[in-house]
Protein: Pseudouridine synthase
Amino acid sequence: MPSKHARLDRFISARKGIPRRSVKHLLAQRRVRIDGDIAADANHRIGPFTRVEVDGDILQNLRPRYLMMNKPAGVVSATRDSRHTTVLDLIPEEGRDTDLHIAGRLDFNSTGLLLLTNDGRFSRWLCDADSGVIKRYRVTLRDPVTADMVTVFAKGMHFGFEDIVTRPARLTPLASDGTHQADVALSEGRYHQIKRMFGRFNNEVLALHRYAIGPFELDDALAPGQSKAIAPQLPAQWS
Structure:
């Protein structure tokens, strides 16, 4: 799906295989419609969900889609894989769409909230650390959480391979008696980040479950592998 807007004349030229000067003739003859209205401006910006018609021929008519899934363990966060079941395979065939992509992946054995969409702007907003969207995880560990871990997570941790320092993350033990479970809240999602952060303390992550991404919380009614359509409240500046 296109991630950027395009000028109307360039869009029609590419879709119809005609010169842009021919597109201007189509506009002058009132043969082009945008979202049902007659179009006249060759410079009009066409987005991924703008309906475009020429002589009644629909060149684009995508509708934004947003899905919430409860990802089970043992499923690949991908739309295609030759060896493993993918999250797209779990969607009923009538609702499966090749335009869907994943907005924030989960590891093969991790479980929980996964969001899928055909809206590139939405997924970039969710995944960009600069957006400040907080992802929340429930972690089960081999060894108890310590106060030192909480402090280091909050300060950020240096990853030598990438030569970066992670953004501050909130680590919250679920009990005060040396619990093996904790909540982790962070605004980025680097490769195996949570497992690597606990690995610094030689503490193995036994299970990792994401239950929230920003304002989206996993619906408890969704069994592992199930999904449902959602209608998110999008940022006001997008309207």
